[in-house]
Amino acid sequence: MSNIAFGIYRHYKGNLYEVAGLAKHSETLEDMVIYKALYGEGGTWVRPLSMWENLIEVDGKTVKRFEYAAEQELLSNLDKIHTTKLGAMRVKNNLGLEDDNAVDWCRQKATQADNIIRKGKNWYIYYDNIVITVNAHSYTIITAHIKKP
Fold first, then answer.
1. Same domain as 87, residue 26
2. Which among 86, 102, 103, 119 could bridge 91 via Cys, Cβ 3.0 to 4.6 Å?
3. Which residue positions in the chain have pLDDT lower than 50?
4. How far is CA 33 from CA 18, 94, 98, 101, in A?
5. 110 lies in a domain?
6. Same domain flag for 64 and 121
């Protein structure tokens, strides 16, 4: 069975869906994706993994039918973002922050981010010339720094 990431995906038409699980079709043993619509009345759906992962043509361009939406995954879990005392000190020192609450400051920047990407075990939040690193599993702020020119 394929190893797709659980989480939030954007359909090529724009709607968001959350992958809830993977399964096998009982008759054909085809790999299936179980997912929930994150709009309207919701609803839980199943689709063959091969369709989930395939590329389609839209307006003459080849695009993924479903694209992993890391930014939505992180933004829907802002309340889980936290750090240690050492992490807060690191963020404040690296950025020269006078704000006493580094966690709230980082959460706010996440909502205003220019870009949020997930690479491996971390999310990287890009805001102006700042990069905030957050562990994708524990939502712990690891560090933040000013990008070098």
1. no
2. 102
3. none
4. 10, 42, 46, 40
5. yes
6. no
